[in-house]
Amino acid sequence: MRTGRAAIEAEIERLLTLLDNLDGDADFEPEPLEEQHDPEAELTWANGLAPGWFVVAERARRKIRN
Questions:
Q1: In whole angstroms, what is the distance from residue 43 CA to residue 38 CA?
Q2: Tens of each residue's pLDDT in the chain, 66 residues
Q3: DSSP of 31-56
Q4: Do residues 11 and 18 make contact, with C-beta atoms less than 8 angstroms apart?
Q5: Which helix or strand (DSSP H or E) is residue 26 part of?
Q6: Cα–Cα distance between 24 and 11 in angstroms, integer?
Q7: CA distance 13 to 26
Q8: Where in the sequence is the domain holding 56, given as residue range(s)?
Q9: CB 19, CB 11: distance < 8 Å
């Protein structure tokens, strides 16, 4: 049995190969934190559509005025 650095490197490679075989993607990388669900993104409408909270608030505001 190998000891030291070589043993650790071999074990890491073995585990990486195991993970690659499990998920089928040798280049699997988790999404960067910036691209994961961001609650603040719901407060804007960069996609051109007003978010639901804005539509509800605007309808309520218009209802009060009329």
A1: 10
A2: 567 999 999 999 999 888 888 877 777 776 666 655 656 665 666 666 777 777 888 888 888 765
A3: PPGGGS--GGGGG--TTSS--HHHHH
A4: no
A5: none
A6: 19
A7: 12
A8: 5-31+38-65
A9: no
Q: Provide the b/e sequence for 8-35 (b: ≥16 CB within 10 Å).
A: eeeeeeeeeeeeeeeeeeeeeeeeeeee
pLDDT recorded at residue 59: 86
Residue 40's Cβ-side half-sphere holds a number of Cα atoms within 13 Å equal to 2
| pTM across the whole model | 0.38
Residue type, 43: L
The Cβ-side half-sphere exposure at 57, using a 13 Å CA radius, reads 6
Q: How many domains, in total, are found in the chain?
A: 1
Asked if 36 and 29 touch (Cβ cutoff 8 Å), the reply is no
